[in-house]
Amino acid sequence: MTYEAEVQFKFDATFTPSYGWDADDYIPEEHYKITAPAADLNAKQYFKLFEKFMLCVGMSPESIRSGAMSLVFNDCVREEDQRKVCKEYELTMDEDLQDKFEEWKIRDAEVERLMNSQKGPMGTIQIQQQEDFRDSADGVA
């Protein structure tokens, strides 16, 4: 059995300038048709294809990204599913920022404590030296 499928995005537009418009700045007709074999496309490939289509019809990359994120982060999507996406892409949800901030404060305090414990009497960082200052002959001479 053979399975073939094709997905198409089509955009047709016409523009008729009214009085006062400079017709040289506009194309009177635009036609875009994007096709792709759809038999084995995964979800990310479909989104990439649709992104190309939206760029062709004049959407900005920022608007496209915002629209894509709104599919995940809206009131109709369970918080559990939103958190899965956050984990996959290493994102932090707004309601988790306070906890992250507390973790950073604890980590910063620990780093400060470790840095201060390594300082010598003049405020310099001490370098660990060899235990018994042996020479290269390993004490044999």
Molecular structure report:
By secondary structure, this protein is of the alpha+beta class. It folds into 2 domains: 6-92, no CATH class; 93-125. It is built from 4 helices and 2 strands, in the order ββαααα. The chain starts with 5 loop residues before the first strand and ends in a 24-residue tail after the last helix. Residues 129-133 have low confidence and may be disordered.
Kindly summarize this structure in a few lines.
It is built from 4 helices and 2 strands, in the order E-E-H-H-H-H. It is an alpha+beta fold and 141 residues long. Strands 1-2 form a two-stranded antiparallel ribbon.
Oligomer: single chain
Strand order across the largest sheet: 1-2
Low-confidence stretches: 129-133
Q: Which overall shape is indicated by the principal axes computed on the Cα atoms?
A: elongated
Helix content: 40-55%
Strand content: 5-15%
Mean pLDDT: 84
Largest sheet: 2 strands, antiparallel
List the helices and strands and how they pair.
Blueprint: E1 6-14, E2 29-37, H1 43-56, H2 61-72, H3 79-88, H4 97-117
Antiparallel strand pairs: 1-2
